[in-house]
Write a structure and sequence with these properties.
The protein has about 190 residues and is an alpha/beta fold. Helices cover about 45% and strands about 20% of the residues. The chain is built from five helices and eight strands; from the N terminus they run βαβαβαβαββββα. The strands form two sheets. Strands 1, 2, 3, 4, 5 and 6 form a six-stranded parallel sheet that branches. The longest helix is centred in the last third of the chain and has 31 residues.
C-alpha cells in the first residue's frame, strides 16, 4: 500500500516529531509499504484558487499527487487558535471533493493544551468525511508536556501511536477486501 504521512503545518516542530515517530513505527512494523512523509514546511504550496487540481504545478502538484495516490494517510496537525492550521485547510481546498474516496485516514494531533482535545472531532473529521475518507474513529492527541528534547517523552503516547497505526492498517485492509469483493460481484 502507498502510505502518506502529512505534517500539516508550515511552522513548529511537534507535529513533525510526531510524524517522524509514526513513520519509524510503520517502517519497522509494516514492511513492504511505500511510505512518504510530507512536511508542508518543506514545500512551497500555493493557495487554492479554484482551478482543477490537475492544473497545479511544482510543489503544489507533488503534494496533491502524493495524497491522491495514497491508500492510507496519516494526517498530522497542530492546533492553532482552536482550529487546524490554514496550511492544512489549504491542502484540502486544493483537492477535489472525493479526494479521499476509499482512502483510510488516521489522525495525530499536537496541541499546547488539553482544551483542544475535541478540535479533531469538530474541525478535521467533518472535512475528511465530506471528502469521503474512511476515518479511523480513535486518534492520537499529544500535548506540549509529552515532548522533551526533540522527542516524544511519554511512553503512553508512543503506545497510542502504535495502536493508531495498527487500527489504521486493519481498517484499510478490511475496506480493501470489501471493495474488491463488491467490484467482483458486478461481474465485469
Amino acid at each position: 500500500m502507498k502510505v502518506v504521512l502529512l505534517s500539516g503545518s508550515n511552522i513548529g516542530t511537534k507535529t513533525r516529531i510526531t510524524m517522524d515517530a509514526a513513520k519509524h513505527i510503520i517502517e519497522e512494523n509494516y514492511p513492504g509499504n511505500d511510505v512518504t512523509l510530507i512536511d508542508l514546511k518543506d514545500y512551497e504550496v500555493i493557495f487554492s484558487d479554484g482551478r482543477n487540481f490537475l492544473d497545479y504545478t511544482g510543489d503544489t502538484n507533488y503534494v496533491i499527487q502524493q495524497l491522491m495516490d495514497a491508500d492510507v494517510i496519516f494526517m498530522g496537525s497542530p492546533i492553532f487558535q482552536a482550529s487546524i492550521p490554514a496550511s492544512l485547510k489549504n491542502v484540502f481546498d486544493l483537492l477535489p471533493q472525493n479526494a479521499f474516496l476509499y482512502k483510510t485516514v488516521g489522525i495525530l494531533i499536537t496541541a499546547g493544551s488539553q482544551k483542544h482535545y475535541l478540535i479533531a472531532e469538530q474541525h478535521l473529521k467533518p472535512i475528511l468525511g465530506y471528502m469521503k475518507a474512511i476515518i479511523v474513529p480513535n486518534y492520537v492527541f499529544i500535548e506540549e508536556i509529552d515532548f522533551a528534547q526533540g522527542t516524544i517523552a511519554n511512553d503512553a503516547i508512543t503506545f497510542r501511536i502504535e495502536k493508531l497505526i495498527e487500527d489504521t492498517f486493519i481498517l484499510a485492509r478490511a475496506y480493501k477486501k470489501i471493495i474488491e469483493e463488491q467490484e467482483e460481484s458486478y461481474g465485469f
